[in-house]
Amino acid sequence: MATLLERWVDEQAALTKPKSIYWCDGSEAEAHKLIEIGIREERINGQPIFHELNQKVWPNAYLHRSHPTDVARTEHLTYVCYPDKETAGPNNNWMDPEEAKAMMRKLFDGCMTGKTMYVLPYMMGSADSPYAKACVQLTDVSYVAISMRIMTRVGKFAIEKISKDGDFVKGLHSIGDLDPNKRFIMHFPLEHLVWSVGSGYGGNALLGKKCFSLRIASWLGLKEGWLAEHMVIMGIQDPEGEITYITAAMPSACGKTNLAMMESALPGYKIWTLGDDIAWMNIGPDGRLWAINPEAGFFGVAPGTSAKTNPNMLRTLKKNGFYPTLFTNTALNTDTNEPWWEGMDGAAPKNLADWQGNKWSGSLGRQAAHPNSRFTVSIYNAPTLSKEADNPKGVPISAMIFGGKRTALIPLVYESLNWQNGVFSAARMGSETTAAAVHQVGVLRRDPMAMLPFCGYNMGDYFKHWINLGKKMLKPPKIFCVNWFRQDNLGNFIWPGFGENIRVLKWIIDRAKGKVKGRETPIGVVPKLEDMNLHGLNIDKQNLEKLFEVKLDDWKQEIEDVRKFLEQFGDRMPKEMWEEYNTLKNNY
Ligand code: SAT
Ligand code: MN
């Protein structure tokens, strides 16, 4: 008798009409087979799916070029579908589920004709974790199948868990005909279901990532009393050998991956990586907050990644691991057959093909690699991988960091006064937009908890959920805000960033352990200069002061802007947020 899973797959096949159905087992042999198919058989837009790179320097690595209109997440084509619009909130595009399904069914009808449907049973979280979830994604692209195998745990164990639980998270994906007018990423949180058509790109197509692990999971977290967040998870080892675990939320392409595997500039400190993008956090039996990374890989921004900014990532990318490594939309050195991007070490090679495969002349100020070009690589390749990375219980979190790209106003670091005040600080976060999504780059937008594009329900309810969870914890993490991007009067970044960020992390863990005092300001506690280890940095006094400055006049406009943002949520915005807002306003 067919199982629940088999029946569901058959139904999707009856709709999409593939020529064959292939059940993936997650083995190494299978990965090689799919890569071969992507090189020799499958085509997107007439192009092979993969190009084999120089295997001596980049073992097991392949280049993928996506369709030129399909290079980033498309937030304007991403919807959450609840029977009522209010539950989706002003932070989401909304469509009635029945209407959305009727429209999508037409787009899916026969879309896999002549193609193979890959069935990917996978786990988010390690299979033995009580917090893990079993899922299945269907797709018609080998690139997506291989990417899912790197980013998640694909294998039979997921099928076993599904038959035990009688339930799974469902994802149906087809690249369709890549027409941007027929591209939709549809979430049905009540059914634990995602339907995505018309894009093969990252967060649009790897449905375990933003679609499930954030949008659907945030909804599950609301119902079940936990948090699904857009956060790094890392351990900071001090010179005594003690490891403190923290999380850090930042919008896409603001340096989360570099932070997660930083090489410390302070002797005696070491960073251990657990995750670079997503944290699922539950209150443990001890009343602390425990985090797991549901993913198993990195989908990181290539431009700017170098031996200086992230030496551990270069080691990760060059390791001959069990999983293939993919590069998407980077440039190609056609003499050496190596990937290349802006901000890699050294000058641009003489003969380059740009991200679309055309000879690159270097003129016209165009970049050779797409600004949102990416690598997809297994976390198990990372030399900084924490030995707790697969611990089914996760790790206990002592501090949470929230950061964004702000060239002015926001100090390098400050600590919130308490949980509720911290939730408010995170909720009013703003960041200058990046190339990770299709929109104008470099404009300030409010991005609460770096979750604006990923919170799968009304953010007013989300803030309330955060406040409620704080009350349930015996020892909630301390909340901090950071900003690596403040500029001087000439428009240069004041703070060197990257490995030097350990100096900020050191202050944060010192504060979390109650080792140092600080200076109180209306937004929270900033460091006293003497408590920050600044030895060997070349920042003049005036700029140093600017880094920690909280100036009355500058904040007036910010506070006004925050009010407008909060007001959008009407009576769904919890009164505690307005209390915090009024305290801040009255302090200025
Ligand atoms: O495209 S993804 O959503 O997977 C990456 C990102 O934008 O953070
Ligand atoms: Mn992300």
Write the layout of secondary structure elements.
Elements: H1 4-16, E1 20-23, H2 28-40, E2 43-44, E3 47-48, E4 51-52, E5 61-64, E6 78-80, H3 85-88, E7 93-94, H4 97-108, E8 116-124, E9 133-139, H5 142-151, E10 153-154, H6 156-165, E11 169-174, E12 184-188, E13 193-197, H7 202-205, H8 208-224, E14 227-229, E15 231-237, E16 243-249, H9 256-260, E17 270-275, E18 279-283, E19 289-292, E20 297-301, H10 311-318, E21 325-328, E22 331-333, E23 338-340, E24 352-353, E25 374-378, E26 395-396, E27 399-403, E28 413-415, H11 419-427, E29 430-432, E30 444-446, H12 459-472, E31 478-482, H13 502-512, E32 518-521, E33 524-527, H14 541-547, H15 552-567, H16 575-587
The chain binds sulfoacetic acid (SAT) and manganese (II) ion.
Sulfoacetic acid (SAT) binds next to helix 7 and helix 8.
